[in-house]
Amino acid sequence: KAGVTQTPRYLIKTRGQQVTLSCSPISGHRSVSWYQQTPGQGLQFLFEYFSETQRNKGNFPGRFSGRQFSNSRSEMNVSTLELGDSALYLCASRPGGSSPDTQYFGPGTRLTVL
Amino acid sequence: GQQLNQSPQSMFIQEGEDVSMNCTSSSIFNTWLWYKQEPGEGPVLLIALYKAGELTSNGRLTAQFGITRKDSFLNISASIPSDVGIYFCAGQRGNTGKLIFGQGTTLQVKP
């Protein structure tokens, strides 16, 4: 099976702009989660989507939003970019059934805000 | 945000040595996971633990889910240069997609 894919891999934006990142989960996986990774804060959970509905949300401002499509692909959007939003944004997918299962990560999108 | 306490923060060892790292939390988890991340890549799952007391191996890697459900450890035996990377523990409660991560252990192996 193909793994989790994320596009683009690298992105450079300026303060005040907005950005949309895309994630395609492993085939058959219905749950997609997003994480932000920075040297200072480490890996922090942003949100999880399952069957097109946001199921969990981390402690991030409303500038961070996401959505999931019927084919389980997901996008996350960051509006009014700040310098501190520079980070590696990781997407992870899992089957999302009734039993605890494990998440598989994509390679990430490296966002630099100038 | 919340993080798990992972130690040591970094290790520099000789090829062939065994490595041990651990993760502790003030609250319980239902699942413990261990990931490895290399530069420019996302974390890769190494071992998943679902039951308190569970001991699971994956090649030279062995991990255990602590009996109190508040800790886990990872051992790497006979380290090789390709073991270099950052190792993260992660805890999960229930059946959610929210993982709480440790700060990571950076492993360097000298040939």
Features:
heterodimer, A: 114 residues, mainly beta, 4-stranded antiparallel sheet, 0% helix, B: 111 residues, 6-stranded mixed sheet, 5-stranded antiparallel sheet
What does this structure look like?
The complex is a heterodimer of chains A (114) and B (111). With 114 residues, chain A is mostly beta strands. Chain A has no helices and eleven strands. Chain A is globular and about 40 Å long. Chain B is mainly beta and 111 residues long. Helix content of chain B is 0%, strand content 53%. Chain B is built from no helices and eleven strands. Chain B has strands at residues 5-7, 10-14, 19-24, 31-37, 44-49, 55-58, 61-65, 71-76, 85-92, 99-101, 105-110. In chain B, the strands form two sheets. In chain B, strands 2, 4, 5, 9, 10 and 11 form a six-stranded mixed beta sheet that branches. Chain B has a five-stranded antiparallel beta sheet with strand order 1-3-8-7-6, with no helix packed on it.
Count of helical segments of chain A? 0
Could you state the order of secondary-structure elements of chain A as H and E? EEEEEEEEEEE
Largest sheet of chain A: 7 strands, mixed
Q: Please state the structural category of chain A.
A: mainly beta
Helix count of chain B, per DSSP?
0
Strand percent estimate of chain A: over 45%
Largest sheet of chain B: 6 strands, mixed
Share of β-strand residues of chain B: over 45%
Average pLDDT metric of chain B: 94
Shape annotation of chain A: globular
Q: Helical amount among residues of chain B, as a percent range?
A: under 10%
Mean pLDDT over all positions of chain A: 94
User: Largest interface, with Cβ-Cβ < 8 Å?
Assistant: A-B, 31 and 28 residues
Taking pLDDT < 50 over at least 5 consecutive residues as the criterion, the unreliable ranges of chain A are none
In the predicted model, the low-confidence regions of chain B spanning at least 5 consecutive residues are none
User: Total number of β-strand segments of chain B?
Assistant: 11
Q: Which oligomeric form is depicted?
A: heterodimer
